[in-house]
Write a structure and sequence with these properties.
globular, binds flavin-adenine dinucleotide, 12 helices, two-stranded antiparallel sheet, Butyryl-Coa Dehydrogenase, subunit A, domain 1, eight-stranded mixed sheet
Length: 376
């Protein structure tokens, strides 16, 4: 057993660190915006990291996507900028359904532009009345003449307004399908989402009698839920990577602060309870990192068969990040509360991770179900 990353992964980490260094000066501004920061997007293009999200025949780096490489990049990016992490992640989440089910024409039209980050995608499942319970969506596609007509409203959609196309999840006959809808189609409109605690590029998307050709349907009719599962199988674990990076960044801030701030005649980190909190944080981060890398490795071998590991990693790491950053704020006292300081931003950015791509409670349900299947 070898716990070291090999040269290929060390290179990916280095590439991600180079990108992170190049945007460090933009991070506070970008993470305070609900629109794409132009300088950050330009730097993402220059980094060529989006090539990790697309197979090599369309400009990507390898024949199939590598969840461990994606995790490693998110770990680095989230420590620097939430927007950089989100833009990078969305390049994969919003293109994977095309990669696995798109026609030759769709793959050739969109995937090279995703690989170069020339365009941004969006993945639209959530609706005002439907979040965790995907099967309760109302968006619907019906056949009309020689094509299709889509109606529905999607809510909290990352990249809405900036995306070149939407992968939209909708009712289709008796089942559900995914549809590739160019953002400039007649009847597509975007409104801002209410402000959230950690600003995020997202919006509410309305599809009002949007006409699309029959081949906008990805895969066979009724494949929609399978495509959602396939996408989450590859990308859910990457949220765990981002959570580990966020927690590590918080801990490093706390270590710097507690080693230089003197109270009661000693640095804070020499006071027993503070030292214990530091040790607990480090230990929990290392545990989360291990399950994350293992789950990512397993997702690379068979993402669907191992989706419960990805769920465990996402659950464990996102919950860990919240605990760790909360303790780190505590160790920094009032200095951890200053608006837009590094620690305060990390504190706000940790919270949504326990809700999106499977709320913790929903993940626990599916993990417990798998446990019964395995051992009973
Ligand atoms: C920053 C951010 C970006 C997002 N980007 C996207 C995007 O790009 N595309 C997209 O489609 N969506 C996106 N979302 C929406 C996200 O997917 C939903 O918020 C998520 O699916 C949860 O749905 P909900 O918020 O409606 O919560 P609900 O489904 O209403 O659930 C609320 C709470 O109820 C509990 N709960 C729900 N179901 C169960 C259950 N079965 N068992 C036990 N407890 C349960 C959980 O505690 C859960 O947190 C984004 C959200 C955020 C915060």
């Amino acid at each position: 057993m070898n716990f070291e990353l090999d040269a290929k992964y060390l290179d990916v980490q280095e590439q991600a660190r180079g990108f992170a260094r190049s945007i460090e000066h933009l991070a506070v501004a970008a993470d305070d915006m609900s629109e794409v920061h132009p300088g950050l997007l330009e730097a993402l293009r220059e980094s060529e990291l989006s090539r990790l999200m697309v197979p090599s025949e369309y400009g990507g780096v390898s024949t199939s996507l590598d969840p461990l490489a994606i995790c490693l990049v998110r770990e680095v990016l989230m420590a620097t900028s939430c927007q950089a992490d989100s833009l990078f992640a969305m390049q994969g989440i919003g293109s994977f359904a095309i990669t696995v089910s798109g026609s030759d024409k769709q793959c050739k039209q969109w995937l090279p532009r995703i690989a170069s980050a020339e365009c941004l995608p969006a993945f639209a499942l959530t609706e005002p009345g439907s979040g965790s319970d995907l099967k309760s969506i109302k968006a619907e596609v019906v056949s009309e003449g020689d094509g299709l007509r889509l109606n529905g409203k999607k809510s909290f959609i990352s990249n809405a307004g900036a995306a070149a196309y939407y992968i939209a999840f909708a009712r289709d006959g008796g089942g559900f399908s995914m549809f590739l809808v160019p953002a400039d189609s007649n009847g597509v409109s975007v409104e801002p989402t209410p402000d959230v605690i950690a600003p995020h590029v997202m919006g509410e998307v309305t599809f009002d009698n949007v006409r699309v050709p029959n081949d906008a349907r990805l895969g066979e009719g009724g494949d929609g839920l399978d495509l959602v599962l396939a996408t989450l199988g590859v990308f859910r674990v990457s949220v765990a990577g981002a959570a580990v990076g966020l927690a590590q960044a918080a801990l490093e801030e706390a270590v710097r602060h507690t080693s230089t701030r003197i109270q009661f005649g000693r640095p804070l980190n020499r006071l027993g309870p503070v030292a214990q909190m530091l040790a607990d944080c480090w230990t929990e981060i290392e545990m989360a990192r291990l399950i994350t890398y293992r789950a990512a490795y397993l997702a690379g071998t068979d993402s669907l068969a191992n989706v419960h590991y990805s769920s465990m990693a996402k659950l464990g790491a996102s919950e860990m990040a919240s605990r760790v950053v909360d303790r780190c704020v505590q160790m920094m006292g009032r200095f951890g509360l200053i608006r837009n300081s590094k620690m305060e931003r990390l504190y706000r950015q940790a919270r949504p991770m326990r809700i999106y791509e499977g709320a913790s409670e929903v993940l626990r349900q599916s993990i417990a179900k798998k446990l019964s299947e395995e051992f009973l």
